[in-house]
Amino acid sequence: RYDEQVKQGLKDQLDELAADLRKRTKATVSTAVLAGPITTTLAEYAARRGVELVVMTTHGRGGISRLWLGSTAEGLVRRIALPVLLLRPTEHGAPVDVSFRRILVPLDGSGFGEEAVPLAVRLAGTKDVEYVLTQVIPAVPVVLSAATPDHDRKVFEARETVASDYLDTQVREARGRGATARGEVLSHEHVATAINEYSDAEDVDLIAMVTHGRGEMSRLLFGSVAVKLIRSSQVPVLLSRPTGK
To answer: CA 131 to CA 180: how far, in whole Å?
Structure first.
């Protein structure tokens, strides 16, 4: 049957990739060809196999592949109760460099968001790795600043102080896990833009964040920030839903 031929062709491709991976890394590798709705089927398979981390590229080469992988990545992060590591594909299918030396962890002030720190530490460890914990606060609106500069400056400084104190606490906790860490308060109207600009300027190797938290900004976190990072970040992104613990 045609379906069986297609399935066998896909299995042969996966087996070839698996053999190459075993040869290069000495890793234990298994393959499977699944049938069904993409995100649901992947999530169910991961649960059955006791998977701890899902790794995939966010875009392919070519229009159809690019759209398929982008939408699959977004759907999978929404549905799966596992950390998902999203990588940018390299040119000509070359191996992706996943050496993480500087990791950016955006925090939103919630206990849920802070789960990204131990998650990133479990993935990358603490040896020769720097963790930059950051919080983005709104920039002072230009129009309002021109009208009431003293008031707006005081409001901004108060926000900056609260964010700085919060990050100091989180940095101490990260250091208690054996990590090299520092805090950085960023100011921008758009959270995702601030994260991307900082990661580009500071040679960040990985962005790690939890997709939901508490509060107004946190409820919108996945829709407004995580999706934008999936689509626009030039560095790998590690996303996870909160455990609620």
So the answer is: 6
Sorted by sequence, the CB contacts under 8 Å of residue 56 that are 6+ apart come out as 69, 72, 73, 76, 84, 85, 86, 87
Alpha-carbon distance of 227 to 78, in angstroms, equals 10
CA distance 60 to 157: 43
Contact (CB, 8 A) for 204 and 154:
no
Per-residue tens of pLDDT for the chain, all 245 residues: 768 888 899 999 999 999 998 998 888 999 999 988 888 899 899 999 999 999 988 754 444 344 445 577 777 877 788 899 988 776 655 666 678 999 999 998 877 788 899 999 999 999 999 999 999 998 876 555 556 778 778 888 899 999 999 999 999 999 999 999 999 999 998 889 999 999 999 999 999 998 764 444 444 455 578 878 888 888 999 998 877 55
Q: What is the DSSP string of 167-235?
A: HHHHHHHHHHTT-EEEEEEEE-S-HHHHHHHHHHHTT-SEEEEES--SHHHHHTHIIIIIHHHHHH-SS
Map residue 131 onto helix, strand or coil. strand
- Decide the pairing of beta strands 84-87 and 237-240: antiparallel
Using DSSP's 3-state secondary structure scheme, residue 162 falls into helix
- Residue partners of 141: CB distance under 8 A and separation at least 6: 152
Instruction: Count how many Cα atoms sit within 13 Å of the Cα of residue 211 in the half-sphere of its side chain.
Output: 25
Block residue for tokens 């409001």: 155
Q: Amino acid identity of 243?
A: T
Report the C-alpha gap between 210 and 133 in whole angstroms.
13
